[in-house]
């Protein structure tokens, strides 16, 4: 029995989306999803994934072909409510799908719409809340919950309608790693225990590993489909579609390409570990650790000096919260500093002091000789460019050009200087000049993000601070943003601070890492040293890059590999050196 | 920044007031507020004050919480009280230069002060003991008869409860956008009024864009959860006029009779 069936389905949005290319959003899909299946849908932003999801529960009706849900045609108007109770949907933004002012009443919303008896509603919402572990929060207001909790409430709200299938449209993309894990664990249990069909749309490749089947979408079509193993073995095709694969999969793929291993595709750390162990001969020989370059960059000069910084929100009220406590930290000119720590650890509070948005409760922050919180606010904000999460939400002008020069036009610069800077920034962010005269609201998500970043870059800040710069972007979009940042750092010597939840990104791009926990600075060191303390990080609720963990495990088990690799290229180098050393029966030559 | 609006924040509890039908609470709040405006002798003030105090105790809400609603009104209270002190004519009490403080002025200032305090407490007693959902439910049910003359009672109630749900979210968002625009060089604090109003455009446009986006997404989410208006819809919490409501209403009527009954007695004397 098929849960969802697409028969030659097309869907075209109305003419209002002028900026979009005229190809249909869904362009001829024929596909069936079995009852009880766990399917993950991958694809770039704008590949038609969300449209496909909306076609499944009749929020959209196909302009060509038919969609069947549990034997019902979505185009038949009288089946619409039956379809929606059978196939529930969880959306991307946790805030915009909770209707009521308490968790309990939100859970009841669906069953109420079904016209169920109050006692039956009660039974169902209690069961659903217990199932997702939110029974303690029944009387709470949704806005007091964390992102992961909100999504669990949204899922429970669907569960209370007792659906056979749940579609999650990028429901993990706005969550932190902890929230994401909560949601993924929950839907896997739902699939396993209750046999609910799960269709998960996501950008996070690791989430696809556990699926029964993966569909890859590209320009409104299904470009690839198969088991995770089949899909992730086609690394080059995925790359071409702007997607990526989990780190360990990428590693094994590269080793295979070099002829170093013969094993099949590895999806998980355990699999990669097994096949690497089989290749590397166990020996007492220990590969010397990769040495840090003796001098990372030129003799460092302190550009930001933070001394005993504390910040308390709403002091003297019942809501008083100590967000930062006695943080002292020097930021060096020209470095890329990563700031990690889980949600609520004080990362955002810390960076908002750098351009005077927040004033220290005690302690001091000095940027290049300027005291933050002093009178030189305007000068300070020119020096320090701060880019918030989802900066594209702040675009507001009629044209991209006006938006980019919003801050710049306040500096009283001559027109030709403004033009020069805009042109220069367009080069850096890789947008063409004709886009300047479009409305920012016509652009794609990735383009909007880059325009928003451009608006800060034209101020030519010496220090650039970014809060989760790649949140919500697909793998290629994320790479593009990081390419811009490293380029800026390299060519203009801009000091860059990045807040991120992605340890892989932090490990690959940062010179140093500051680890925050409950408002205190826990660690401040190079990525290699920070990520060598796995247990300590774990106790702070943080992870280490998958690849680092893999090599640590191998090293600990006595295999002659470097136990401190941070990136895939380092990992490949370590393995090939070890293999080379083995073949020539000589000691390993150091990196 | 704008986070100090406590009037209307529900505090969970199991008291008699919490359990009353929201409709009786709405009606009685209105009646008591009218009563607060009618009272004018000190005896009536004392009785009314005692009654409000009893309600407060019954509600089990900490006095501090219920008085919080007064804080933002403190300035208005102070100004009206002072105006009364100075401008009500009567028997002079104190003379400071040309300013005369009369006995009547002082009395009316004190009375006004207590009148406003009682008003705020009565109003916040309702909002503190009633969930926004129950309140909108109550309003919906009270407006139900008006549906026959074309008043969309259910839709109005739904709009109210969604507004309540999103107020904190949009406030947070406003703060976030202001910070982001300030980081881009926006300046909200200098210049004349016109310039300051204009400086809010970079905040308002993104706020509206996002509010519309939220509205779109919420509508979609509601549809996906089978919402199609009030037809065929049941409620988790049925609101019912129970025996408790009857007892409470009788008690209320008794109080009003005593309160204003004395007035008639005095007249007849």
From TrEMBL, chain A:
Main location (coarse class): membrane
**Molecular function terms from GO:** ATP binding; ATP hydrolysis activity; ATPase-coupled transmembrane transporter activity
What's an example GO cellular component term for this entry? ATP-binding cassette (ABC) transporter complex
- Which Pfam families does the UniProt entry name for this protein? ABC_tran (PF00005)
Q: What class of enzyme is it?
A: translocase
**Keywords from the UniProt entry:** ATP-binding, Cell membrane, Membrane, Nucleotide-binding, Translocase, Transport
Organism lineage: Bacteria, Bacillati, Bacillota, Clostridia, Eubacteriales
Q: What residues does the ABC transporter domain cover?
A: 4-244, 304-543
Q: What is its EC number?
A: 7.-.-.-
State the protein's purpose. ATP-binding (A) component of a common energy-coupling factor (ECF) ABC-transporter complex.
Question: Organism, per UniProt?
Answer: Thermoclostridium caenicola
Q: Report how it sits in the membrane.
A: Peripheral membrane protein
SMART domains, per database record: AAA
* Cell compartment(s), UniProt: Cell membrane
Protein name (Swiss-Prot/TrEMBL): Energy-coupling factor transporter ATP-binding protein EcfA2
InterPro entries, per database record: AAA+_ATPase (IPR003593), ABC_transporter-like_ATP-bd (IPR003439), ABC_transporter-like_CS (IPR017871), ABC_transpr_CbiO/EcfA_su (IPR015856), ECF_ABC_transporter_ATP-bd (IPR050095), EcfA2 (IPR030946), EcfA_1 (IPR030947), P-loop_NTPase (IPR027417)
Family to which the UniProt record says this protein belongs: Belongs to the ABC transporter superfamily. Energy-coupling factor EcfA family.
The annotated subunit structure for this chain is: Forms a stable energy-coupling factor (ECF) transporter complex composed of 2 membrane-embedded substrate-binding proteins (S component), 2 ATP-binding proteins (A component) and 2 transmembrane proteins (T component).
UniProtKB/TrEMBL annotation, chain B:
**Gene Ontology CC entries for this record:** plasma membrane
Q: What does this protein do?
A: Transmembrane (T) component of an energy-coupling factor (ECF) ABC-transporter complex. Unlike classic ABC transporters this ECF transporter provides the energy necessary to transport a number of different substrates.
Question: Which stretches are transmembrane?
Answer: 45-63, 75-94, 106-128, 246-266
- Cell membrane listed as a keyword: yes
| Compartment(s) of residence | Cell membrane
Query: What is a GO molecular function of this protein?
Result: transmembrane transporter activity
Task: State what protein this is by name.
Answer: Energy-coupling factor transporter transmembrane protein EcfT
> What organism is the protein native to?
Thermoclostridium caenicola
Family under the similarity heading: Belongs to the energy-coupling factor EcfT family.
Give the membrane topology, semicolon-separated if more than one. Multi-pass membrane protein
Q: Which domain of life is it from?
A: Bacteria
List the CDD domains hit by this protein, alphabetically: EcfT (cd16914)
Upper lineage: Bacteria, Bacillati, Bacillota, Clostridia, Eubacteriales
Q: What is its main location?
A: membrane
Q: Which InterPro entries match?
A: ABC/ECF_trnsptr_transmembrane, ECF_transporter_component, EcfT
- The UniProt record lists the keyword Membrane: yes
Q: Quaternary state and partners of this protein?
A: Forms a stable energy-coupling factor (ECF) transporter complex composed of 2 membrane-embedded substrate-binding proteins (S component), 2 ATP-binding proteins (A component) and 2 transmembrane proteins (T component).
Keywords from UniProt, A to Z, are: Cell membrane, Membrane, Transmembrane, Transmembrane helix, Transport
